[in-house]
Recover the amino acids of this structure.
């Protein structure tokens, strides 16, 4: 029985509202078991059907999770708790490496692209019922096929999360399990939780999710799997050819699992794509332009099986309707004119990221950053390491934002690091991680 909260309410909505309020106020802490349905019904003086409906509402809102005979408990991270809120205050004068942003100097100028989009709008205004931009779809399709994707329908969404949310909602139901990388993308972890889905973490190395971890997640009943193809956030992992083959073999034995691939690294990563797409009946690959062209260009290209793409478009039509054709035409112009020297951009990020990883290795510190913008540094204690780094003029992101069950770490965004800063940062981080005379880090 609950020690600090009694199930009460005359209807399913009242019972659910009471439990949700108790969770928000801390009277029902994460992990606390709720009583069985019949016991809850007796406590509230309602029928078991009403109590069961209340529990179903709580699952759909992401407040509780049900694990079969093990019962119903408050989620370890309620949907009202967002990982993005786990942040640090960066004092004035401190070099902020915690944000995960691309280098503005490596993003293309938008004047010509937006002007071209405006001219096209004047000639052919995009009104209600206008289809997605044909040039953008053609350019995207050619790029995807060049990267080994099977011919498939295309859609355009307002970024990666927009696509992922619609596809998960179209295929899954609250309580379903989703296999995600651990450590993984903060926003994705929040989204899965907020949708009332159950996270099954998969550990990974520099080559992507470990096959044993994917196998375990599939055996645990994962209905969907989310994999980052390149520039994994926060570790920089990129799925290698051998790892892709191993993951495809595992997924082939579970053809009904929904596969979601995130390829936001396209355009600023110099390693080839090794797609998993097509090995299951239901799949999508999402290619965002946020890191290569700019975060404010809220646009992603999506390809996938016909059923999933139809469901995605259907849900899109019922909500936002479409992505701005001005943005679509601007991205098409940037791609057609090759406004970004992708090889030079990838090389610039690699010099900064690899330089930091190598400098830390010289100082006996293990770090990860095979591709992308970030470097992931395992530590003994995140709070202590962050505090000591701040005292030396550097701000790092706490790994707690990205972790589910993996050990503590820091995320350092190396995207804007100058060559003259790398050695200084490595020295300061080594000092921050050095044990005191008591044997503790601090």
């Amino acid at each position: 029985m609950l020690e600090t909260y009694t199930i009460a309410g005359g209807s399913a909505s009242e019972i659910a509202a009471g439990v949700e309020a108790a969770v928000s106020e801390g009277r029902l802490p994460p992990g606390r078991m709720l009583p069985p349905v019949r016991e809850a019904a007796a406590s509230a003086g309602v029928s078991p059907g009403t109590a069961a409906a209340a529990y179903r509402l709580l699952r759909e809102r992401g407040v509780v999770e049900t694990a079969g005979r093990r019962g119903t408990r408050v989620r370890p991270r309620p949907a009202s708790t967002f990982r993005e809120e786990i942040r640090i205050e960066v004092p004035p004068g401190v070099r902020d490496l915690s944000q995960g942003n691309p280098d503005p100097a490596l993003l293309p100028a938008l004047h010509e692209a937006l002007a071209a989009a405006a001219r096209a709008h004047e000639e052919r205004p995009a009104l209600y019922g206008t289809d997605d931009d044909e040039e953008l779809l053609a350019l995207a399709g050619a790029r995807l096929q060049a990267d080994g994707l099977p011919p498939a329908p295309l859609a355009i969404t307002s970024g990666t999360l927009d696509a992922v949310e619609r596809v998960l909602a179209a295929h899954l139901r609250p309580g379903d399990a989703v296999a995600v990388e651990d450590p993984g993308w903060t926003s994705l972890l929040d989204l899965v939780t907020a949708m009332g889905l159950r996270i099954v973490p998969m550990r990974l190395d520099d080559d992507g999710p470990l096959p044993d971890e994917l196998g375990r997640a599939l055996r645990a009943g994962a209905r969907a799997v989310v994999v980052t193809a390149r520039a994994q956030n926060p570790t920089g992992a990129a799925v290698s050819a051998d790892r892709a083959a191993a993951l495809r073999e595992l997924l082939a034995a579970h053809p009904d699992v929904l596969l979601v691939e995130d390829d936001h690294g396209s355009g600023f990563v110099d390693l080839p794509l090794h797609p998993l797409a097509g090995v299951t009946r239901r799949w999508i690959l999402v290619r965002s332009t946020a890191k290569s062209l700019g975060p404010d260009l809220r646009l992603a290209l999506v390809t996938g099986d016909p059923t999933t793409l139809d469901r995605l478009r259907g849900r899109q039509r019922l909500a936002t309707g479409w992505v701005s054709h001005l943005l679509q035409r601007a991205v098409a112009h940037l791609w057609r004119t090759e406004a970004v020297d992708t090889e030079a951009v990838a090389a610039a990020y690699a010099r900064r990221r690899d330089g930091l990883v190598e400098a830390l290795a010289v100082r006996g510190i293990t770090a990860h950053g095979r591709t992308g913008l970030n470097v992931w540094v395992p530590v003994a204690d995140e709070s202590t390491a962050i505090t000591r780094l701040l005292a030396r003029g550097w701000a790092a992101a706490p790994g707690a934002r990205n972790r589910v069950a993996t050990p503590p770490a820091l995320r350092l965004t190396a995207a804007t690091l100058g060559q003259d800063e790398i050695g200084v940062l490595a020295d300061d981080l080594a000092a921050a991680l050095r044990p005191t005379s008591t044997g503790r880090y601090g």
Q: What stands out?
A: Residues 82 and 325 are 32 Å apart (CA to CA). The chain has 15 helices and 15 strands. Residues 342-362 form the longest helix (21 residues). Residues 437-442 have pLDDT under 50 and may be disordered.
